Every structure is written in structure tokens, then in C-alpha cells.
Amino acid sequence: MQMIDAKYLLLLENRTLKMPGYDSVPVQADKQNHGFYELRNVRRDRLKRQAIVLGVSALWALVSLPLHAAPSAALGYTPKYPAGFRHFDYVNPDAPKGGEFVLLGRGTFDSLNPFVLKGVAAEGLTSFVFESLMTQSMDEPYSVYAHIAEDISLAPDRLSVTFRIDQRARFSNGKPVLPEDVKFSFDTLKSNLGHPRFRLYWADIKRAVVAGPRSVRFEFTRPNPELHLIAATSIPVFSREWVGDKPFDKLATEKPIASGPYTVESFDLGKRLTYKRIPDYWASDLGVRRGMFNFDRIVVKYYKDDTIMLEAFKAGEFEFNEEYSSKMWARNYIGPQFNSGRIKKAELPHRNNAGMQGFIFNIRRPLFKDKRVRKAISLALDFEWSNRNLFFNQYVRCDSYFSNSEMASTGLPRGDELKLLEPFRNRLPASVFTEVWEPPSTKPPRSLRDNLRQARALLAEAGWTLRDGVLRGANGEPFEFEIMLTSVQGRGFERIVAPFARNLAKLGINVSYRSVDTALYQRRTDTFNFDMVVASYKQSQSPGNELMTRWHSSSANQEGSENVIGIQDPVVDALIEKVIFAADRKQLVTAARALDRVMLHGEYLVPNWYIATHRIAYWDRFGMPDKLPLYYDPAEAWVYPTWWKK
Fold it and tell me: Where does residue 192 rank: exposed (0-12), middle (13-18), buried (19+ CB within 10 A)?
């Protein structure tokens, strides 16, 4: 299940890489659309803010304002919603409450704790149960509004930020959310008990301090343009009572106690999970929650086989599905239920940053350390053939780590981007400055034959020669590797890998591929025990600190990080920091383009494809808002929170 940029938690429920889908990978976790702003505490007062807005595109100055006053923008970006707004535009504020929504769970689950390395967490926990201090709008590039925290204040030296907790905030057990709970949540997750990604992502958040009966302060090791937003939106808050005296990584079957609109009512590990709506949910009348979370119960049923899953959907066993397989979408969403209109199909447009999906090389393996080898393998994928024969021409090739975005590099570097890259010239391949990177293509006048001929030459340069139909290295070792898939992908992705493997066989390369169960797949990717996997790097509208865990050297050997490629490049490190510490939107775009260009010329993956619509099907049992948000996932961020039962 995808999660969009508006999701308030980072890298929790499924670690972006862990549950690839069919021919497009369902990304289940991503960071916020972090951007740039500056907070200035001009004066303090005791009036409650219904919403404090951090609008971000360039620099921002947020002033402490009385109720219903609008925030002030320093440059370029005016938040859409004023303080005291009644509801988001993409919800129905008068949506009726009640009924049950039955959802699909892919694969399996064995844990109710989504914040540790061990186990596969249940679907929906970070959407329905856990909340952060502030929450985000889905119809703006980046604006964040008050939620658990009703007030935020950045220190003049930008080395700390203080939040004031809304005195109405309550956990599911009815007890108030206190600063001590926020501090406890942060301390627990950043310790060795939490998933390693928290330590990577929050590396510059030094500590949390209880600053008063309703205040918590986060102190930073150095100023960082987005640390305030990271503290506001990426720290899931839970009750100290949930943990008690038990080890945090042993809470697999302990029902969470948090501040969200739902609690876990019942579960059968690996098979089924039921969430129950809290009737007196503390935030139901806030502008950021009005008209949302309307179902009394949300039931998640798990399926491991995509064919059985689709038949169960047609039989009404669950009520909504987003389809990731072009073949399934084109051929299998048919039958009496569709003809009668009882099941609806829709293709919803979106403006999300598509990022990058691809066959990822594990460059820790000696086999893939040579860039020429990686490029040669990439030349063997015939996307045009696959799109025509397998995908029903539904996809566009990924040509950037920020595909479908202004941050994608184009042409040769010039202007500010060239100036940014110039100091690294002697540490970069000359091609970064002299060649326009493009994904391999077989569009005429190019052909697969020409691409394979070029691949053979690259392999020969790297010391690989063809002997008796087998490509061998200097010591006679054969060139062979495995592509690891998940059981959830099943036959859907194997039909794509098979022609790729056949093309590689023409070069003398032996490629095997196999599907493994979800838990084993996660363990092996967490420990980097694989040759090649399919993975997706979905991007926010304003990338930042999450890049540290994806491609920075500091995460390359950290188990559980997203740096499954194993990149350890000082230039990539430097450009990531340029992105994170950019002074304004223009600098961010320039740095992102430079980073993108260097990554592409590194040939770290075989680019896949993306689609600019969401393919969904649902039983005609629901009401839904009239308006779509701009940046969204149709499931967890729009359908489940904003639809209602007819």
C-alpha cells in the first residue's frame, strides 16, 4: 500500500524497499515534503491557535499569532489555510460516521510495533493509531498545521525548537498526552531499541527536554533548515504505558496506546486485523481532522497470492484495491460486478514526485563494483519491448531519481548547477560534464542488438570474456547473480524479469530469480544479503534529510537503512548536504539536480518505470469528497481517512 508525501511518519511501516509490488512498486513510506522556512518568536500569548501553519517553498517567518490570525510569509509561499480553518478542501466536513471498511493486506504481518527492525508490522498502524506533533496538508507542496502541538517556537540561534502540547490531546486510554510522553517516544526510538533509521534521520537532534507542564523542547547539534519540521512531523508519539517495563522490541503483540483516531480491537497474526474508531476522539473537531476517519471499524484481511486476492476482491471479501500490475489492470478487472457497476474502476491523476524505481545493484558485491559492468547490465533491459508487450503502454521510463519533477537533471550542467559541480570535477567521471545521461532505449534507430553489442564491449573492458557461451572473469569464474523478489510480487514481476534474463544470457550472464516470503525478504534486505532487488525511491516535493539514509556513506553499513545499494561516495555525501542545507528553494532545486546527475552517471541501478495516475477499484458502497488533493496516495492518505459508508 502506498503512502504519500503527506504522511506524517518517515520510513516506519515498510521501509520503502520492503514490499515491492508488481510492475510498479507500492511505496509504503516516505518523508514529509520538507522545505525551507524560518520561525521567529516575536511575542508570546496564551491564546490557543487552532492551526499554526508552516508554509514552505522559500524562507518563512512564522510569528506567534492570536486565534484566527493568518501566518506571515517572508518570501514566496502563502499557506492555503489560515489559522482557525474549518477543514481541508479535499474532505467532506459533514461526512457521516459509521459502518465498516474492509481493506487488503499484502503478504503477512507478525507485529503491532512498526518502529523496530525485527518483524513485519501490520498495515495501517502509522495511519490510524499513531500521530505526530503536527500534520500536513495534501494540496500544498509543503504546509504543516498544529495537531498534538498547538504552538511551535524556534530559538533565535536555530539550535532548538519548543512545542506546546494541546491540553485536549488524549491517548486511546483517555489519559492526556504529556511532554514526558513525547520525550519518552523520541528517546526510545532513537536508542538502540528503535529501528536504526531513526538514529540516522534524527542524527542532528541531540535530545528532547521537558520544558514545562505542556512544553517539550528538541535541541539540535547544529542549525539545519528542516530539523524543526522533522521534529514536528516525523516523531510518532505513544504513551509510556504502552511500553511499561517491557523491552521495546518485545511489543509485537501488545496493542499500542497512542493518540490516533483508532485502536487495535483484535488481530490474528498474519491473517486479519481490526481497528475500532474511538467515539470521543480528541481531535475530531480540529480543522486538520474534521470530516476524516469516518468508519467505525477498519478490517484488514491479508492475502499472499495476487490471483486469490483479486478473486476475493470480486467476491466482496474486501472493498478497495489499488492495482500495481498493468496486466492485471488491463485484463482482469472485468466480469459481472464491473459490468453492473457494483465495482467501480478509476484512474486518478496525481502530481506526485515519481522518484526512481529500478533493479538495484548491491555494489558491496565484488561483481557489481565496476560501473562498466553495471552499465552493461542496464543495456540489456528492453523497456520499449516490455512496455509494448507486457505493460499495455501504460508506463513512462524513469529518467531521474526525481522523475516527474523540476528537480530532475536535464541536458548538460550549466549555470548554478555547473558552479556547484565544478569543485568536484577531478572526483567525478568526465561524462558528468560532457554527456547527457539517458536510460538505454531501443527506439529506432537504436536497437537491442546495438545495446548488447555496446554491453559486450563494456564487459570486455572490465575484464570479462565469453568462453564457450559463458561470460568469465580473469580467474575463470562465471558471471552469475540472483534477482530476489517477494512472494507478493509472484508471477507479476517474474514475467518482466524473464525477458531481461534472456537478454543477459545472450551476453553469457546467468541470472536466476526467485520469490521469497515477506519476512525473509525483509531480513535479507535489512542485512544487505542479496545481489539485486527491485526497489523504489519515492520522493517528496522537497527532499532533504531522508537522503542520508538512502545514499549517504554513513548509512551504507547500517543494517536496516535504505542504502541497500551500498553507496559510499564523498561527492554524493557532499551534494546530499547541499540539498539539506540549501538556503532557499532555488538552491535546493540546483543541488537536487546536481545530486541526480551524479547518481545517474554512477549507474547504481537499472531504471524501471512510473505512471502518473493511480489505478483503483472499489465496491460502490462509499461516499467520497468531490475534490482530490494534489499530492496524495489514494489509499491510506485519501480513501481510508476521507471516504464514508453510504
Answer: exposed
Residue 497 CB neighbour total at 10 angstroms: 20
Percent over 90 (pLDDT), the chain: 71
Select from 453, 429, 451 the least CA-distant residue to 439. 451
Q: Which domain holds residue 78?
A: 38-256
- Digit-coded pLDDT (tens) for 495-527: 899 999 999 999 999 999 999 988 899 899 999
Q: What is the pLDDT of residue 61?
A: 32
**Given the C-alpha cell 491523476, which residue does it identify?**
349
CA gap 479, 636 in Å, rounded = 42
Is 322 within 8 Å of 616 (Cβ atoms)? Answer: yes
197 Cβ contact list (under 8 Å, min separation 6): 10, 11, 15, 549, 560, 561, 562
pLDDT band at 24 (very low <50, low <70, confident <90, very high): low
CA distances from 456 to 28, 279, 368, 465 (A): 37, 65, 15, 9
Q: How many other C-beta atoms can be found within 10 angstroms of the C-beta atom of residue 268?
A: 10
Tell me if 98 sits within 8 A of 645, measured CB to CB. yes
**pTM score above 0.90:** no
In a domain, 223, yes or no: yes
Domains identified in the chain, total number:
1
Residue 456 inside a domain? The answer is: no
Buried residues in 269-287 as b, exposed as e (16+ CB within 10 A): bbebbbbbbbeebbbbebb
**Residue 153 domain-assigned (yes or no):** yes
Would you state the cell numbers that stand for residue 345, as one nine-digit string?
474502476
Q: What is the dihedral of CA 436, 30, 347, 620, to 10 degrees?
A: 170
Closest by Cα among 23, 633, 30 to 348: 633
b or e along 327-338 (b: 16 or more beta carbons within 10 Å of the residue's beta carbon)?
bbbeebbeeebe
Three cell numbers written together for 439: 536510460
What is the structure's pLDDT at 491? 64
Estimate to the nearest angstrom the gap between the alpha carbon of 257 and the chain centroid: 25
| Exposed / middle / buried, residue 123 (Cβ in 10 Å: 0-12, 13-18, 19+) | buried
* Three-class DSSP category at 366: helix
What's the DSSP call for residue 554?
Answer: G
List the CATH number of the domain containing 238.
3.40.190.10
- Tell whether the model's pLDDT for residue 21 goes beyond 70: no
- Of the pLDDT bands very low, low, confident and very high (cuts 50, 70, 90), residue 145 is confident
Residue 403 DSSP symbol: B
User: DSSP state, 150?
Assistant: E
Q: Are 187 and 199 in contact (CB under 8 A)?
A: no
Helix (H) or strand (E) holding 518: helix 518-526
Compute the distance between CA of residue 551 and CA of residue 567 in angstroms, rounded to an integer.
6
- The 10s digit of each residue's pLDDT in 573-632 is 999 999 999 888 899 999 999 999 999 999 999 999 999 889 999 999 999 999 988 888
Task: For residue 616, count other CB atoms closer than 10 A to its CB.
Answer: 19
Residue 25 within a domain:
no
Helices 371-379 and 448-461: crossing angle, nearest 10°? 160
